[in-house]
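Researcher: We're reviewing a set of sequences before deciding which ones to prioritize for further study. For each one, I'd like a predicted 3D structure that I can look through quickly. This is ABC transmembrane type-1 domain-containing protein. If possible, include the structure in token form so it fits the rest of the review sheet.
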Amino acid sequence: MGYKGKKIWASFAVHALLIIISLICILPILWMCLISIKPTSESISGFQSIWVAEPTLDNFRKLFDMIPVGLNTFNSVFTTLMGTATSLFFCSLAGFAFAKYKFPGRDFLFYFVIATMLVPPEVGAVPLFVIMKKIGLINSLWSLIVPRIATAVGIFYMHQYISDVPDELIEAARIDGCRDFGIFYRIILPIIKPALASWAAVTLIARWNDFFWPLLYLRKQAKYTLMVTISLLPVSEGLSTPWPVILAGTTLVIIPIIVLYLILQTFQKSGMMAGAVKG
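Model: Here's the predicted structure for ABC transmembrane type-1 domain-containing protein, in token form for your review sheet.
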């Protein structure tokens, strides 16, 4: 067997391995979706559970009767979109300041921000809860937005992109009479669109999947996000656990984020490629 033949077989083996791994990852999601449309009378264990004899949407109807799905979905969408928008604005603004302005203590402050990435966010849960309580944001959707309007990871991410913007562009804008915020809005933001799109994709997915902070700050079901309210579904109904209804709720949470990721992965790739090209 020549070199070309070995290369073809190696490529075939790699692709076969990747397909097997992909199927292993997809199977639990497929099983969950199939169980969510099965009648509660059908078996949900064993390989035969993959076969759905009589598909039904009764599990979703029961789910909507048990919890305020529409209201909780609105809470998730609101906190996800507002959290992403504020993170994009403030992280890019801070990244611009650290990258293009010189002020006393800039390097120390920037490295301090980077150092906070080493600390797990949950470490600050108690102090943050006390602060949110004192300013009256407990049981408010804004408690999921305000504490994270800017993150160390986001600031560092934007700083790396903005550092590559030529200083000559900024100086030329100043000569033309453009003020600082105008430079940020008219010069910086259009240039770093790939970075903004990539960070938006990451932040959208993270905010939608957020569970710990909503569970900590929110106290009423009407304020819960979809992720929290699905996790609090009753695990028993009489003598049996309504797994099809629970998995219907899980499907309702997971499918939108999978679709969102498939749509946004193009922006993530373009953002990474833009960041990899220098000069």
